[in-house]
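Below is how a single chain appears once it has passed through the pipeline. First comes the sequence as given, then the structure the pipeline wrote out for it. We keep one example in the README because the format questions we get most often are answered faster by looking than by reading.
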Amino acid sequence: GRFDEAQRHYESALALAREVGDRIWEGNSRSNLGLLHHEQGRTAQARPQFEAALTIAREIGHVRLEGTVLCNLGLVFEAQGDLAAARTHYDQAVTVAHEIGDVRLEGQFRGYLGVLDARQGRFGESRACLSAGEALLLEASDELSLSLLLCGRAEAEQLAGDGEAAQRCWQRAWALAEPLQ
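Resulting structure:
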């Protein structure tokens, strides 16, 4: 919750990365700074950081960072109400993660895409995407990410009108997350 301090640290890390010419660290720092802005609801400041990080990731061939930044851009576009752009970025992030065989990232990205599907009334697609994401996160043994996906799945089920399924998802999410606190 110490956002100002976090921003100062990310900006210092970014300045140091640029000073020593560490493009990987620069891309990561920009992505982290963008995420901080996004979390604070400052999407107009988040987007240029993510776009710069994406350019860096592509220039240096850091495919994992590319996938992460594509997903983060999807979050920004979704927050700005540009659902078509959000979908495009989530789809690209899923593709990147799948191509590099990163089941953890693919599971996370499918979670965001599945919730977007539900918000757009595509409940069959949502359930399929969320189920695939859940299976991938189980395979990766990532209980924290799985609990977050299950929260999204609870929202999707509630939007689909299935309150009982939403409650079951929420209970599963809570059971996974509680020991991690």
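The chain has nine helices and no strands.

See the next section for the split statistics.
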